[in-house]
Amino acid sequence: MILLYLFIAFFLANLLGYGGGPASIPLMFEEIVNRYQWLTSDEFSNVLALANALPGPIATKIAAYVGFAAGGWPGFIVAHAATIVPSALAMILLMRVLRKYRQSNVVKGISLAVQPVICILMVVLTFDIIGDAAAQIGWLQSLAIAAVAFLLLTKAKVHPALVIVASFVYGGLVIPFLG
Amino acid sequence: MEKETTTQYRQLALAMLRTGLFGFGGGPSVMPLFRVEAVDTYKWMDNEEFGETLAIANTLPGPVATKMAAYLGYRLKGWTGACWATLWHIFPTSVAMVLLFSLVDAISGSEVVAGMIGAVTPVIAVLLAQMAYDFGKKAVKGFGWVFGILTFVIAFAALQGFDVHPGFVIIAFIIYGVFHYKLMDKWRSRQKGESS
Q1: Which of B66, B141, B188 to mutate to test the interface with A (most CBs of A within 10 A)?
Q2: Nearest-by-Cβ selection for B177 from A46, A110, A163
Q3: Are residues A70 and A141 in the same domain?
Q4: Which molecular function GO terms apply here (chain A) (predicted)?
Q5: Potential cystine with B65: which of A55, A57, B34, B164 (Cβ 3.0-4.6 Å)?
Q6: Whole-structure pTM over 0.90, yes or no?
Q7: Are residues A72 and A127 in the same domain?
Q8: Which residue on chain B is closest to A164 by alpha carbon?
Q9: Does B82 touch chain A (CB under 8 A)?
Q10: Could you tell me where the DSSP H helices lie in A16-138?
């Protein structure tokens, strides 16, 4: 029974969450804490903190922990399946149709028309994230790191993963000892 | 043939492992890393197709990163590829989540961890800005300067000014896109008619 509930909870929370994993966090809170009471509100905040400290998608990390806490490894698998499969399936089927007609002016028009929206969404996200960075480590550090990252990525063509690792090393070894 | 298949599976696994392990801040912030793997490193698709795929992923509900991983896998190796790519993308951090939970207090209280997360955030912002620039360039190229900038203003006003949900804004632009080339043809033939 618990497996069925896990499936329903994660299915609903993700189905209603537009805009990717972070958007479904409040919905997951509703299901996990209020409806099924798998975690207390404090536990949920701790899980979220851990999920934010680790890389990778947010929704699947919460599914991993709550699924495991409520239903062991079978729960782990069911919560993941409910989170990932419905939207991935819809995505693949829709793309199949679009690719079939991609020479048509209709599909060409669609793929042109979405570019500006994605651009603006990325711009907004960029500013949000710069704000987050400034709140965490201050404007001076944030802008300096951003400038160095920009040069490494565009002029030196360093792979983003390496730039991320370098920023980790700097953040772990230098920033805590500056103040 | 056999060898090529093995190589593709290995590349998929590596690419998805990297996007999973180096992506911070949840699905949407990880998109630049997906773009680097799919477009620059392995050339599975061009920038345009990537943008289109991302737009569709954004209109559908649910986590964005797993939709992209599943589709990239599917595009290369069908349904098996979809499962393979998704598993490599989420597996390491999902397992880490369960194993690390007893350490949650130590991790969230640690200044070193806070410094690391703080330092990686501006890098993510630069990656996102680069991607925004690419999409913007594409829009201007396709629509021309005047109309292109108009589309930015409309999108920005809808998203930020009127707080319309991104899914709806994308759907509205998609609906316009269906008619875009037809309207352009009509407009051009009318201009020709007037000048002659």
Answers
A1: B66
A2: A110
A3: no
A4: chromate transmembrane transporter activity
A5: A57
A6: no
A7: no
A8: B120
A9: yes
A10: 25-29, 41-53, 58-100, 105-137
